[in-house]
Design goal:
Layout: H1 3-14, H2 21-33, H3 42-61, H4 67-90, H5 96-119, H6 124-146, H7 160-176, H8 181-211
Helix pairs in contact: 2-4, 3-4, 3-5, 4-7, 5-6, 5-7, 6-8, 7-8
């Protein structure tokens, strides 16, 4: 399968137009890097996401606290999260079970990012609220799909790649300024919450327009 053929399949799966801009760049990079993994079952690739997140949490809160390594691992989680779907499409191994498993793993990854923020100093109530809004976003899309609306609806500022980026950049900043880890955790959780609130409003508006009887 060529990259252009994959883009056609990607647009059909996501109920949207051909991607452009940064999304296109990300997909091109992920498509190329995923090539050596096409011999693996995509569900096996999916399962690596939570395992990598646990490793990132370990390095972030261990005695030596290797924030830079933890940052790289969280970035790798984002790549792996793209690889499973790409490999599934490229090898014609897409399945309902794979989609279900991917959704569960995505929520575990969101939980891992929330835990990272909490263990490094973010107020529990803010981190939990930000994480909860992320869960609500995904529930809204799942519910809309169950009602027959198969399109994305609207791309918000708080999509999964953004949540991965927050975790990656937060940990990198902790590596640069380790003495300000708690303050950085607070800022990261507040940013996640703010983006989540804006995105919630965007999704409500989009689904009200498309699902209104």
């Amino acid at each position: 399968m060529t990259f252009d053929e994959y883009l056609v399949s990607w647009a059909q799966i996501h109920g949207t137009k051909r991607p452009t801009g940064l999304v296109l760049v990300w997909l091109r990079m992920s498509f190329t890097l995923s090539t050596p993994l096409t011999r693996l079952n995509p569900n096996v690739i999916t399962a690596f996401g939570p395992l990598l997140m646990l490793v990132a949490i370990y390095f972030a809160e261990s005695t030596n606290r290797n924030y830079f390594l933890a940052s790289i691992i969280v970035f790798a989680v984002g790549l792996v999260d793209s690889f499973d779907g790409i490999v599934a499409v490229r090898t014609s191994k897409t399945s309902s079970w794979g989609a279900f498993l991917d959704g569960i793993v995505d929520r575990l990854i969101d939980t891992g990012i929330g835990l990272l923020l909490i263990v490094l100093g973010a107020p529990i109530e803010i981190a939990v609220l930000a994480f909860t809004i992320a869960l609500i976003h995904e529930y809204m899309r799942a519910k809309a799909s169950g009602l027959g609306f198969r399109e994305v609806g609207v791309i918000t500022p708080a999509e999964k790649p953004t949540r991965i980026a927050i975790g990656t950049m937060f940990l990198f900043a902790c590596g640069v300024l380790p003495e300000q880890t708690s303050q950085l955790a607070i800022v990261a959780s507040q940013a996640w919450l703010a983006l989540g609130a804006i995105s919630f409003a965007m999704l409500m508006r989009a689904f009200r327009k498309n699902l209104k009887a």
